[in-house]
Design a protein that fits this description.
single chain; 219 residues; mainly alpha; 10 helices; 2 strands; 73% helix
Length: 219
């Protein structure tokens, strides 16, 4: 475990914030090319050339998303927060470009409608059903006017969702209990009291101690 952890830390240490933007751009462009190839395939839709092909698409985007959002959720900074705000509507538009692709949905629908005669195993059958359900719920069966409206809504939701997440994070960081007498901290260790004094000084509280939120106190 220690070896794996040290390896992962060394890998993340090599990734800089400026590396993410071109990686996301490349990942989205690659997946759109893959999806376009699937959607325009001249062969009749089958489980392999449609669903399996979709499962294999977007691997670069998956890798960069996993790295970025894991780090953004656990050890973010202003630059990553700004990039996340910038990426949110773009990723929403990327998802819509796939989910609302008329040609692609026609192929998925064809595989779905032939699922009971395609001799699929239980796992493959479930995958076909889930893909069809997800695309329908994402708006694939809507008309063009409604799709346009849905894209606007999804873009707005992605931006609002990211803003809400950031506001909650900022409020959590700002949350604290101010204490005016060190006697009220009886029971805390000297390092803890010193940390409380330092936190108060950093936030402009004179002659006070600030108990900031930690995991346990947040819960």
């Amino acid at each position: 475990y220690t070896t794996v952890w040290n390896f992962l830390c060394s890998v993340f240490a090599e990734i800089k914030v400026e590396h993410y933007r071109p990686a996301f751009d490349a990942g989205m462009a690659e997946q759109l090319r893959e999806v376009a190839a699937i959607a325009s395939n001249p062969e009749a839709p089958t489980f392999d050339n449609t669903l399996v092909a979709m499962e294999k698409s977007g691997r670069l985007l998956d890798r960069v998303s996993t790295a970025f959002f894991n780090l953004a959720a656990t050890n973010s900074n202003p630059a990553m927060d700004a990039l996340r705000a910038e990426l949110s509507p773009q990723l929403a538009a990327h998802r819509d470009a796939i989910s609302l692709n008329t040609q692609l949905f026609a192929r998925i629908k064809a595989v779905y409608e032939a699922r009971n005669t395609a001799k699929l195993d239980a796992e493959s059958l479930r995958l076909v059903e889930r893909y069809h359900t997800q695309f329908v719920r994402a708006g694939a069966a809507l008309g063009e006017v409604d799709k346009t409206r849905l894209k606007a809504i999804n873009s707005e939701l992605s931006s609002l969702g990211n803003s809400f997440r950031q506001n909650v994070l900022n409020a959590t960081k700002a949350g604290a209990v101010s204490v005016g007498s060190v006697a009220e901290l009886d029971g805390l260790s000297e390092p803890q009291i010193a940390a409380a004094a330092s936190a108060a000084t950093q936030r402009g509280f004179k002659d006070q101690w600030l108990i900031t939120l930690q995991n346990t106190t947040t819960q």
